[in-house]
Fold:
Amino acid sequence: MRHITPLDLRRSLGSILDAASGGERFLIERDHRPLAMLVSVEDGARLDESKEEIRKRRLAAMARIDERRERLARTHPAFPGSDAVTLLRELRYGSDPGYPEDDDG
Structure:
């Protein structure tokens, strides 16, 4: 989050609005006291979300995570039982048994 003064806002309104619309957040301060926040429209809309809308958005995100996990399990059968290091090696080097070993092991 970027801290700016009202004078900074007046001087650079266009670039600050562009940055805010891209997701950057601004805290507008006067004498080191917060006055207001400038956020994107999407972030602002979330402030007014009902509990049901928040619940739906979170459930949709969890469904996307489950879908990606299932896709990864289908394409990389070792995924469910493998540790992260083994999985990353398989993703990086495939099933090639000659992949470089770590110095530790």
